[in-house]
Automatic annotation (TrEMBL), chains A, B:
EC number of this enzyme: 6.2.1.13
UniProt keyword annotation of Nucleotide-binding present: yes
SMART domains: CoA_binding
GO terms of molecular function: acetate-CoA ligase (ADP-forming) activity; ATP binding; metal ion binding
Chain ranges of the ATP-grasp domain: 18-54
The species this protein was found in: Methanochimaera problematica
UniProt protein name: acetate--CoA ligase (ADP-forming)
UniProt keywords, alphabetically: ATP-binding, Ligase, Nucleotide-binding
Reactions listed under catalytic activity: acetate + ATP + CoA = acetyl-CoA + ADP + phosphate
Amino acid sequence: MQNICNMPGRIISEAEGYEILKDAGINVPKFGFAKSEDEAVRAAGYTGYPIVIKISSPDISHKSDVGGVVTGIPDQESLIREYNSLLSRVSEKMPDAQVTGVLIAEQVSPGTELFAGGTIDPSFGRVLSFGTGGTLVELWKDISFRLFPLTPEKISGMIDETRASSVIGGFRGAPPLDREALLDMLGKLGDLFEKRDDIVSFDINPLILTESGVVAVDARFIIDDDVPEPKVEMPEKFCTSEAFLSPKSIAVAGASATPGKIGYFVFQNLLEFEGRLYPVNPKRSEILGVKAYDSVSELPEVPDWLVICVPAKAVPAVLEDAGKSGVRFAVIISAGFRESGEEGRLLEEEILNIARKYDLCFAGPNCLGIMIPGLRLNATFGPKLPQPGPVAFLSQSGAIISAITDSGLVADTGVSAVISLGNQADLKFIDYMRAMERDPQTKAVVLYIEELKNGRKFVESVKKIIKRLPVVAIKAGRSKKGKIAARSHTGSLAGSWEIYHEAFRESGIIPAMSLTEAFETGGLLASEGWPKGNRAVVVSSAGGFAVLSADYAEDYGICLIDLDDDMKEELDSFMPSGWSMKNPIDMIGDAGVERYAKTLDMLIRYQDRWDIAYVAAAPVTSIDPVRLAKETVVFSRQTDKMVVGCLIGGEGMAPGVKVLNDNHIPNFSELESAFRATGLALRAAEEIMSFENAGETK
Amino acid sequence: MQNICNMPGRIISEAEGYEILKDAGINVPKFGFAKSEDEAVRAAGYTGYPIVIKISSPDISHKSDVGGVVTGIPDQESLIREYNSLLSRVSEKMPDAQVTGVLIAEQVSPGTELFAGGTIDPSFGRVLSFGTGGTLVELWKDISFRLFPLTPEKISGMIDETRASSVIGGFRGAPPLDREALLDMLGKLGDLFEKRDDIVSFDINPLILTESGVVAVDARFIIDDDVPEPKVEMPEKFCTSEAFLSPKSIAVAGASATPGKIGYFVFQNLLEFEGRLYPVNPKRSEILGVKAYDSVSELPEVPDWLVICVPAKAVPAVLEDAGKSGVRFAVIISAGFRESGEEGRLLEEEILNIARKYDLCFAGPNCLGIMIPGLRLNATFGPKLPQPGPVAFLSQSGAIISAITDSGLVADTGVSAVISLGNQADLKFIDYMRAMERDPQTKAVVLYIEELKNGRKFVESVKKIIKRLPVVAIKAGRSKKGKIAARSHTGSLAGSWEIYHEAFRESGIIPAMSLTEAFETGGLLASEGWPKGNRAVVVSSAGGFAVLSADYAEDYGICLIDLDDDMKEELDSFMPSGWSMKNPIDMIGDAGVERYAKTLDMLIRYQDRWDIAYVAAAPVTSIDPVRLAKETVVFSRQTDKMVVGCLIGGEGMAPGVKVLNDNHIPNFSELESAFRATGLALRAAEEIMSFENAGETK
C-alpha cells in the first residue's frame, strides 16, 4: 500500500521485522535466517516442517512477483532443492538486487488472510490501517483507517467498517474467528508504532486469523534512522478578543483613492460598514471622503480590526506599529509571503514573530479578506456582500469565495461570515471555527480545504464544537493531479484523501464533493440542526417523486418507515382510492393543499415515529404553492424533527419557495439533493451519537 | 443471488443439474448419488477419493449453512462416518426438510473460485451473470451481467468488467488462468439457457478455474415445467405519418368551456397553437370562441392530431369515429384504463384493437399529453410551454413533466418536444425515439423511465439511433421500495436496476441518477454532440477551480493531458511567473480576458492534442464575463472538439452565461456537474465506439 519510492528510510529485513513484532508481544511464526544451504537446514530443524522460505533483500518489496517465496516445503530434501532454485530465480529476475539471505519460517496453517499497516500522514500524523489481506489486497481495496491516538473502540470500529468483518463474525454459518486476538494484536501494533519513533511505516500482510488466534505472517517495516524532529506544536493562538466577530471600528492600512489598487477596492467595499472606519495612508489627508491618518498609532482610538493592504515589505512596520498601539486583530490581505518563495517565507516568519510579541493575531497573509454581512462589513477586495444568514464559509481559495458569494447557493440561506484563509500563518481553520462556535449568528460552517496544518489538533478541536456547530467540508486536491495542482497553488503538501476522509468521519465533519453539495447541506443543518434519527416519511402528490424518493432514500441510507395500521387507517379515511397505502405517501395527482394539510396533521400526531419528513410537490394546477408552503411552515413549527421542503419547479413554485425561505425551512429544487444532504447529515450525526455513547461507557 | 421465494418453478437436485451441464458439454466433477451408506461407498468407488459429499434436498438452498457439505473425505472409513453425521446434522437443523439423498462427488483441486448464473428479467428476458465466486460471493458483489443474445465479444467483455479478470489475467506475477476454457464454458451455459425454455434460472458457484481448465463444481437450477407462453411480440407499430411531429391541424375531442375540466385546460393551452384547431363537443356550438363540431367525422378536414379528453368509457366510440375518418394519430389523455383495474384493462385492449383496425397510433392513455414548443403546441392539461430548443423529454410521470418544464433546467437549453407516455398501450419509448431521430429540431433525448416494455427490442432499436441521437435516461424504481412504489403507481413489474444498467450500457444510453444530471448531460450533448475522446484541458484563473478540476477529472474518468514542451513554451511566453506550468492551466488570479484569449488561441493551434476543453472562471474584478464568453464563442467556432463553459457564479456571471447560451455553448455553474456530465457522455461514447470496432471485425 506504500509507495516506497517517495518515502524516507529503509526497508528492514523480514527477520528483523519478526523480531520487532515478537518484542511487542505479537505472535509470529517460528523462524530462522540462512545465508547458506546448511544454515537453511539448521533453521528448519528449529521451526519444524512444513516450512516457507522467502528471499531477503532490501531491493525487493514484492517478493512473490519475482518468485522469491516458496511455501509448503515438506522435508529437508525439498528444502535444499527449493533453496537453490529460489536463489537462481531471483538472481535471474533481479540480477542487481542485493540478497542478504533467506528467511526460513514455520508454515502457518491456513486461515482468513487480513492485513494491517501503519503510515505517517503529513497532516494527521500516525495512522493505522486494516482490511482484507492476501495477494489480492490491492484488488479488493477493503481497507479502513484510524488516526492516532487509538482506543479499543476505534480499533473495534475499524474492523467493523471492513467487509472482512462479516467473515470474522462468522459468515453464512461459518464459525466466528478470534476477534479478541485480532483486537489485541492491532492494539499492540498501535502501541508499537506510537512508541517507536524510528518506524516510518509498516505493512503486515497477511495476518492469518483463525478461530483460535492470529499470526503476523509477512511483515515489512520501513525504518528511518534520522528521526525527524518532532514538529513544534504551535502555541494555541486563538483570537479571544470579544470584538473579533463584532468589530465596532476598522482601520485600513494602505487604503487608496486610486481605482484599480487593492487598497482602493477594500476601502470602497468597507464604506458600507456600520461601524467607524479609518483609512491609514501617510500620503493622503482623506480617502474617498474619509479623513485619513499617517499611521495606526495616530488613530483617535485603537481599532478593533486593522486591515492591511500595503506591499509585503511594508507589512512588518505596520504590524509593529499596530502591536505597539494595542491592536489585537489584523487581516493581512497583502501577498508576497510564503507563497512567493524563500524571501517571502522569511517575511512571513517575521510578521508572525511581531504578532506573537504583541499578542496580536491575524488572518492571512495572501488572502481575499473577511466579510460579515450582518454588519455590512466587507473587508475584501472583490465580491459583493451576500445576504446575512446562518452559514459561515471558510475558504482557502479566494476565487471560490467570489463565485459563492455571487451565486444562488447562498442567496436563499444567507451567510454569517466569509473568511479567506490565505497562508494561515497565524490563524487557522480551527481558530475561526472556535470563534464561530461562540457567534450567535452562525448555525453551520462550510469549509473549502486544500491543506490542514496540524490535522490531529484540528480533529480533537472540532470534536468539541461539532454538536453545537455542524461543519461541512470540501477537501480539494483529493486526486493525484489535484494534489499537485494544490501544491503549486498553495505551496503545501497535502495528505491523502482517505486519511482526510477518516479524519472527517472521526470529527463528525460532513464530507462534501462539490460546493453545491456543501452549501445545500450546510443550509439544511443551519435551519434544522442535526437529524435526531433516520426514520423518514415522504408526502407527495406526484407519483414520480414517490418512486424517486424511495430510490434516493436507499441510495443515501435513509430509512422510509412502514406506516403502522393506525396511521394507514387515518390516512385512508380522507384519501381517494388508489393512494399508495404506504410510505412514500403518494396522495395521487389530483391532491390539493387540503389533502397535504390533513396528511401533515396526521404526521404531527404520530411524530414520535419519524425523524425526517420530506414534503414534495410539483407545480401542478391542483396545488397553490404559497398555501402548501404555509401548511409546511405550520407543520414544521409543531415539531423539532427535521422538515425538508421539496417544492420542485421554477417560476411556478417560486412564491412557495420564498415562503419556506422566509420561515427558515430548507427547500430543494432537486429531489436527489434533498436526500443526499439529509443522508450526509445523518451519517455524521450517527458518528456524533457514537461519541456520546463511547463517552458514557467510559 | 436468486431470491427463490418469489420465483416460480422448483429447484432440481444437484445431480440432475450435473446431468444437464454434462449434456451441454460442460465440465463437471465425477459424481454419483446415494440414498444409503452402501450406495455412497459404491459411488465413491467410481469417483475415486478424496471426495465431497453434499446433502440433496429441494428445501435447502444454502447447504453449507446447515452443515450439509463435507469436503476432503480421504477414504471409505471417513466416508461412512461423515455420511451419517451429515444426515444427522441436517435433520437436527432442518427437521422438516425433505432429504432425497446425498451427492457423492470427486473433490476438485483448488483453483480460483468464480461464479456464473442465469436469470429471466421481466423487461429484458434472459440475462447471464458472472463474477467472483465462493462462499463470499455476496460479500464482494463482484458481478457483471449481459443480456441475451450473447456473442463471444459480450462474454469476453463481461469477464473484463469484473475484478476477477485481474486474477484470470495473472495478478501480480501469478500465471494466467485458462481464460479460453472459461469463455467456452460461459458460451455453452448461454446456449443451454437460450435453448432450454424450462430453465427459469441457475447459479453455478463455484466454477473452479485453474491454469488448465474449468469445472462447474456446484450447480443449482430452477426449472419451471409450466413453461410460460412466449410473449407475443407486439407488431412494430411506429407512427410513420410525416405529420407526427409537425401537425398542421389538431382536433380536441372533449374540449370544454368549463374551467377546472381537463378538456378546458387542454383546449385553452392549445389556443396558442400555430396551426388549425377544432374543438369536438356535441353539446356546444363554440368553445372559447372557436367553432365546435359534433364529431370527428364532421370536421372540415382530417386533423393531423386528435387529442382525446372524454371519459374513458366514451373513448372507444371517439376512436372508432376517428379511425373511420382517416385520423392517423391520437393523444389519449383520458384516465381510467389499465391503471384502474380489470375493467380498465379490458377497455385498454378494446381501444388498442380499434387503433390496429384503422392503422391509427396513439399516445397514452392516462397521460398528461404532448408539447412541441417550436410549434407553440401545448396539448397538455398542465404546464406552460418551455422555450424551444434541442432536447426532447419523454416521461412516464406527468408531475415530473410539470416540474421540469417549469424549472430552470430547461430554461437555458430549451426543449424540442415533451411527451407524457402514460400507459404506453400503443406507442412506447422507442416509437417516439425513432420519430425524434428524424426530427431536425431534436439533438438529444432525456427519458424518465419507470418500466420498459419489451426491453430487449428497446435495446436493439436504440443501438441503431444512438450515434445520431444521444439519449440520457433516469430509471426510477431502482430500489426495492422504489420498485414497489412504481408498481402501485403504474401497475407494472419493473426489472432489477443492475439489468437496466447493463441494458443502458449495451445501448449506449447514459444513465443519470437525477433529473438535474439528466438535463445537464442532455443539454451538453445537444449542443456539443458526442465527445471524440477523453483528452481534456482546463483553463482557469482561479487556483481553487484548477485543484477541483483535477479531482473531478479523476472522479469521472477524464484524462487531463500533460502539456507538451512546445505548448508550455508558448504559454510561458505570455504568462506571469507562478502560473501552473501544467494542466489544469492555472493562469493566476490576476488574469484578465486577454490572458484567456491567448491561452485559448494556443489551444486551437494544438487542437489535435485534446478532445474536451473546460473554460472556468469566477466572477472576479479582473474578468469581464461578456468578453470572456465572446472569446469562448470564438474558440468554440474554431474547433469541433467539445467546449464546456464553467463560468461559475450568479448575477455577476449571468451576462456572460447568456452569451454562451445564445451561442449554444453549454455552461455549468457547478464545476463538478461539468465534469460529471462530460464523464457520463464519455463512458457512453466509448461504448458506442466499441460497437463500431466490433462491427468492423465481423
